[in-house]
Specification:
The protein is α+β, with helices and mostly antiparallel strands and 282 residues long. Helices cover 28% and strands 29% of the residues. Strand 14 and strand 15 form a beta hairpin. The structure holds pyridoxal-5'-phosphate.
C-alpha cells in the first residue's frame, strides 16, 4: 500500500495521503470502535454475509448503530474491490464511535467514523503450509468480551510481539489451563481423528474461518467435539491448527519448542486445507 492507494473514509474514496481524521476521534482516544478483516479471492469477498453479521453483532454489543445497511456495505465492498488492483485482497474496515470532546460516556449524536482500505491478501507461504509453523503459549489475560471484534488490541499486540521475538508465528492462549484462541487466530486440536474446538463463547472471537472449518469438517468425514479443551489435551494432540482470514488453516508443529504429534502437518490438516482451497477457487 502506498500513499496513492485509494482508501474510503466517511463517504469518500481518496488517496491514503489525503485521508485524515480528528485527533479527538474516539477510536484514537479510547480505542472505541470495531473492525472486520475480509479476505477477497478472485475479486469476490469470502463469506461477506457472515462478516457483516459479526460486524452488526460487534456494533450492537458496544451500543453503536450500524452506519450502513448490508446492501450499502456490499456496494461499498464492490467499489473498494474495483478500485484496487489486486485479484486477492484483504479488506480492512473500521467503525469508531466518532469525534467528541474527550469523556468516557458515549457522546450524544456523534457520527461514526467509517474507514476502509484494501491490501494484497498475504496468505501463508507454500513452505509454511508444507512444514507447519512454530507457536509459543501464554496466559490469556484479556477482558471477558473477546467475542467483540474491537479495535482495542493491546493484549493481542503484546502477544503477537512475543511470537515475533521468539521466531514463532503465533502465541496460543490459555485461560485457567483451557485453550481460548491465539493472538489473531482461532485454534483447533485434533485427537484420534476428531476435531476439538473450544467453545464459541465470550472468551474467543467467533472467527469466520472457525465457523467455516466446523462446517467443512463433516464434509471431509471428521467428527467434531465443541467443548473446553485443556492445556494437557493441546500438548498431547495429534495435530494443532490455527485458523483466520489471513491464514486459512495452518498446522502448528511445535508449541513452546515441543513437537505436536510427530512434528509435521497431519493428515486431517491436509484434508481440511485441500477442502478449503476448493472453497476459494474460481
Ligand atoms: C483474536 C482473534 N481470534 C480469531 C481470529 C480469526 O477470525 P477470522 O477467521 O474471522 O479471521 C482473529 C482474526 O483476526 C483474531 O484477531
Amino acid at each position: 500500500m502506498n500513499q496513492d492507494s485509494v482508501v474510503y473514509l466517511n463517504g469518500a474514496f481518496q488517496p491514503l495521503s489525503e485521508a485524515k481524521i480528528s485527533v479527538l476521534d474516539r477510536g484514537f482516544i479510547f480505542g472505541d470502535g470495531v473492525y472486520e478483516f475480509v479476505p477477497v479471492y478472485h475479486r469476490r469477498p469470502f463469506r461477506l454475509a457472515q462478516h457483516l453479521k459479526r460486524l452488526g453483532n460487534s456494533l450492537a454489543a458496544v451500543g453503536m448503530v450500524n452506519p450502513m445497511s448490508n446492501a450499502e456495505w456490499e456496494k461499498l465492498f464492490q467499489e473498494m474491490i474495483q478500485r484496487t488492483p489486486y485479484e486477492q485482497q484483504a479488506i480492512y474496515l473500521q467503525v469508531t464511535r466518532g469525534v467528541a470532546p474527550r469523556d468516557h460516556p458515549f457522546p450524544q449524536g456523534a457520527t461514526p467514523t467509517v474507514f476502509m482500505m484494501a491490501n494484497p491478501l498475504k496468505l501463508p507461504t507454500p513452505e509454511q503450509v508444507e512444514r507447519g509453523v512454530a507457536c509459543v503459549s501464554a496466559e490469556d489475560f484479556r477482558w471477558h468480551r473477546c467475542d467483540i471484534k474491537g479495535i482495542s488490541l493491546m493484549g493481542n499486540g503484546l502477544w503477537r510481539q512475543v511470537a515475533v521475538e521468539t521466531g514463532a508465528t503465533e502465541t496460543v492462549l490459555f485461560r485457567n489451563d483451557f485453550l481460548t484462541e491465539a493472538s489473531s487466530s482461532n485454534v483447533f486440536a485434533v485427537k484420534n481423528g476428531t476435531l476439538l474446538a473450544p467453545l464459541r463463547d465470550n472468551l474467543i472471537l467467533p472467527g469466520i474461518t472457525y465457523d467455516a472449518v466446523l462446517e467443512f469438517a463433516p464434509k471431509i468425514g471428521m467428527p467434531v467435539e465443541t467443548r473446553p479443551v485443556s492445556r494437557a489435551e493441546v500438548f498431547a494432540a495429534d495435530e494443532l491448527w490455527l485458523t483466520s482470514s489471513g491464514k486459512e488453516v495452518l498446522a502448528v508443529t511445535t508449541l513452546d519448542n515441543k513437537s505436536i504429534g510427530n512434528g509435521k502437518p497431519g493428515p486431517a490438516f491436509k484434508k481440511m486445507w485441500a477442502h478449503f482451497q476448493t472453497q476459494t477457487a474460481i
